[in-house]
Design a protein that fits this description.
Layout: E1 8-11, E2 18-21, E3 27-29, E4 36-38, H1 39-50, H2 65-128, H3 131-135, E5 146-147, E6 160-163, E7 168-173, E8 182-191, E9 201-205, E10 209-214, E11 218-228, E12 235-236, E13 243-246
Parallel strand pairs: 5-12
Antiparallel strand pairs: 1-2, 3-4, 6-7, 7-10, 8-9, 8-11, 11-12, 11-13
The chain binds zinc ion (ZN).
Length: 248
């Protein structure tokens, strides 16, 4: 070997032992196992063994033919990891798609639920006549009346049937409303076989009770509201829910 001969490390293609070779030569013989090998392959062998994927980004491109296989190796590793990333992205995209699909399904179910609930509520409202206001009478003198939030709506107990002097009485009562000067009572009634209540009558009282009565089988219902003041300045509470009673 002359001074101008460059010696490089190589790995024996048979036993893997590290040997120093002249890259200009075609063949060498391993001092460990005695196998003759092609020098280019042994150099490639060495370079592949000493290249690590961690440093792939920093591999110096010392472009000699012998390094090419190292770069191919590294390139393959990177392609592989790119393929892995592509696969991972595909899986993620599929997961995202499934989550989105699930989300819209859930929203659909919720929407359908709310919609169904709304329909049922609406039907119920229609059947029951809709809320407290229509469950209580509307006064014939509604126009110009002032409803005061200061006056609570009375809560009237269902009528208690009791014997009167010359009739059977139905006794209704309610708790006193704070600030009230008195109460208006709406009363209507029907013979027990009748479907519809007859024309209502209105009464005023300063008591917190009302007595209906009849000598035959009658159903009564009353609604009560509190009032305060007289004439133009009178204000009312809302009408109470109906309280029911009967003479039989
Ligand atoms: Zn060897």
């Amino acid at each position: 070997m002359g001074d101008n001969v460059k010696i490089v490390p190589a790995s024996c293609t048979q036993c893997g032992g590290t040997v120093e070779v002249d890259p200009q030569s075609e063949k060498g013989v391993c001092p460990f196992c005695g196998t003759s090998f092609i020098i280019e392959k042994a150099i490639n062998n060495y370079n592949v063994q000493h290249a690590t994927i961690e440093h792939a980004d920093n591999v110096n491109i010392d472009m000699t033919g012998s390094v090419k296989s190292v770069l191919d190796f590294v390139g393959d590793q990177m392609k592989e990891s790119r393929a892995e990333r592509r696969e991972y992205k595909k899986i993620q995209a599929e997961k995202d798609r499934q989550m989105t699909s699930l989300f819209f399904k859930m929203m659909g179910i919720m929407f359908a639920g709310v919609f169904a609930f709304g329909i049922i509520g609406f039907i119920y409202y229609q059947i029951t006549g809709g809320g407290d206001d229509t469950n209580a009478p509307v006064s014939s003198e509604t126009a110009g009346e002032v409803i005061s939030p200061e006056l609570d709506e009375p809560v009237v107990s269902d009528g208690v049937t009791r014997a009167g002097e010359d009739s059977i009485e139905v006794y209704f009562e309610w708790d006193e409303i704070s600030g009230a000067d008195g109460y208006q009572v709406y009363e209507d009634y029907k013979y027990y076989e009748e479907e519809e209540y007859r024309e209502p009558e209105y009464y005023e009282t300063t008591e917190t009770a009302f007595v209906a009565g009849a000598q035959d089988y009658f159903d009564f219902r009353i609604s009560v509201r509190a009032y305060k003041g007289q004439g133009e300045s009178r204000v009312y509470s809302e009408w109470s829910d109906f309280a029911q009673g009967s003479t039989y």
